[in-house]
Amino acid sequence: MASASVNKPKVLVLNAPDKAPSDYVAKLKEEVEFYSIEQASHDVVAGRIAEAVKQNGPFVAFIVFINWWSRPFPWPMDEALIGPLVETGCKMFSSGGAGYDSVDIKYMTAKGVYYANTPKMPALRTADSTAMMILQALRGSSEREADARAGKWFDSSKPLAKDARCSTLGIVGMGNIGKLVSGHMQHFGMKVVYYNRNRLPLNEENGAEFVSFEELLVRSDVISLHCPLNEGTRHLFNKQVFNRMKDDMIIVNTSRGAVIDEGALVEALNSGKVLRAALDVYEFEPKIHPGLIASPRTTLLPHAAVANETFEKDQQMEILLNLETFIRTGQPLNAVNEI
């Protein structure tokens, strides 16, 4: 930590930016005074924040570099956690990831403070993983691999692979990730329809067709979810929605687990209404519904769609760019709320 200076704005940091380029961090520390606390449970971190404010505050920003490989995370980011920061003038909060369903945005907005996410870092990585999972589900590769590992050869009683060139992909949520997935899968010959709160400008559709939610359900052979989790999307895919879909359809989810009612999905898999499911996220993470684990027709990843050898470096850089932009302009680069 640099020596204290009354001229430098103070920033409280959870964990260290240990993957970001050291020269960039060193240069930023010439302008900003960093104070660090370590990751722990929500209540422990809340205590550490309160003590840091008392000893070294006030802070202008609080940024979180999540240690993805240890638990627990300091979620949720709510008044109980960050109240002492907000009440002493902290105006900007930022952490990793595009989603922010665990952040109390209403509280922050009411208090006139920003929350900034990192939408660029996960987009390409999640889109690549989604494309892989769609192809795995189309081809039933998890079932075939299980057979091979069990010493079985090709089981002709199982459904054959579906042909991407004869299949329609329905995308729910046509944001950064949805648009990338659309482009990926059109390369494999899939027709793409999408449902979004608002239709995209024509120059951003790139071959995808805007349809109603109901039309997407009845036309799609594969549905891929890329919508945020909120009260409007929680259990968006429930028993009634599954019943309105095509028979033998495939569902892929790399957004948030609770967008799907997992009990209803297990029922749809067991009945054959849903042919296969490929999931990276779960309703009660890190727990996975036992029916999903037991099903031979699921492809399951441990919320790892975004994880590759460079994601932590890029995520930390995007968080630091939020901070740098806020220090220079008063507004972070990727603010999700308006104040």
UniProtKB/TrEMBL annotation:
Oxidoreductase recorded as keyword: yes
Family from the record: Belongs to the D-isomer specific 2-hydroxyacid dehydrogenase family.
One Pfam family this sequence matches: 2-Hacid_dh_C
Gene3D superfamilies: NAD(P)-binding Rossmann-like Domain
Taxonomic source organism: Lentinula lateritia
Top-level division of the source organism's lineage: Eukaryota
Keyword terms: Oxidoreductase
InterPro entries in the record: D-isomer_2-hydroxyacid_DH, D-isomer_2_OHA_DH_cat_dom, D-isomer_DH_CS, D-isomer_DH_CS1, D-isomer_DH_NAD-bd, NAD(P)-bd_dom_sf
Domain D-isomer specific 2-hydroxyacid dehydrogenase NAD-binding: from-to ranges: 132-305
All residue ranges annotated as the D-isomer specific 2-hydroxyacid dehydrogenase catalytic domain in the record: 65-337
Annotated protein name in UniProt: Glycerate-and formate-dehydrogenase
PROSITE patterns (UniProt xref): D_2_HYDROXYACID_DH_1, D_2_HYDROXYACID_DH_2, D_2_HYDROXYACID_DH_3
